[in-house]
Amino acid sequence: MTSPEPRGEPAPDSRPAEPAPDSGSAPPSGSASPSGSGEPAPQSGLRNPEAAVRGLGAGTLVLEAIVLLLAIQPIRIMGGELSGWGVGSVIALAVVAVLLAGMMRRSWAWTAGTGLQVLLLASGLFHWSLAALGLIFGGAWVYALYVRRTILG
Questions:
Q1: Does residue 79 contact residue 124 with C-beta atoms inside 8 Å?
Q2: 62 CB neighbour count, 10 Å cutoff
Q3: pLDDT classification of 28: cutoffs 50, 70, 90
Q4: What is the distance between the alpha carbons of residues 56 and 145, in angstroms, rounded to a whole number?
Q5: What is the H or E stretch that residue 92 is in?
Q6: Cα–Cα distance for residue pair 3/40, rounded to 1 Å
Q7: Distances (CA, A) of 33 to 14, 41, 42, 49, 102
Q8: pLDDT (tens digit, 9 = 90+) per residue, 79-130?
């Protein structure tokens, strides 16, 4: 003998299936990707993709500034000659990196960040280790640009 259904609730299979409410995050089924391949554009799944990308860029620049400032003394002690111009350029680059990190809302900040990486690489003329840092952070910046392009399109 089967137990009676609780009052107020129909049996699970007796209710007609209702479509899920549209959350607005999925693209319409007929939309095509920008590449024209007919596939839907990829969704990042982030609530605010612009803010996430800005955070990635700002975090990269702040980390770069910290490493540059912490690298001054070891370069001077172990690496040999780092002139006053070299120390000044490292401090200036770190200050510019922090300022750019605060301005990531502006579209030109990404271009300026790329210029900063080029300047860091060029500061390798003062000491070889600065060129090595330029290569490392240049690679991190290229990756941040790749993520930005992937998420924002």
A1: no
A2: 16
A3: very low
A4: 9
A5: helix 84-102
A6: 48
A7: 40, 4, 8, 18, 33
A8: 667 778 888 889 999 999 999 999 999 989 999 999 999 999 999 888 888 8
